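S.,

Sequence below, as promised.
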Amino acid sequence: MLFLKRFDTPVGEMLGAATDEGLCIFDYAHRKMIGTILSRVQTRLQTKAIEGDHQHFDALEKQLEEYLNGSRQQFTLPLHLIGSNFQVSVWRALQQIPYGETRSYKKQSIALGDENAVRAVARANGENGIAIIVPCHRVIGESGSLVGYSGGVRIKQWLLEHEKTHAGSLIQRLLFEI
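The prediction came back faster than expected:
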């Protein structure tokens, strides 16, 4: 089964979808591609989404709150990544970008083993349906520009500034405790 729930967050209304295997959608409700992403997930799972609660949503709400208040840098939610093998490899590579850091699409392409796959990587990045948790907001243009983001460039900038601010403060807290 595929469970669907809407979440009000400080960065806007989000749509979540989960299976027993894990979270498979957490994306901006206003996003133009949200219907396409939901359709892709339903088709691959051969099921329709039903509104309802799921244990993964409880964990999502707790971890998202911790992320937004600066006390969590890494999500430990079970994810059910639903896409082509290439898309899933791109999404897994996104999860390797450290909190508070950014990478260019070209560097992501190189990390995936093909520096000429920049456009394919950018497209797969854009088809990520698990915003924030699979941190596609950490990918920027080669020149450092904040190119597109599913939630909008303003939210992307906010997320990046939030992470840079809290990455430094968390390191200082850890050093102080030592």
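The helical segments are 34-45, 55-68, 85-94, 105-111, 118-126, 153-177.

Coffee later?
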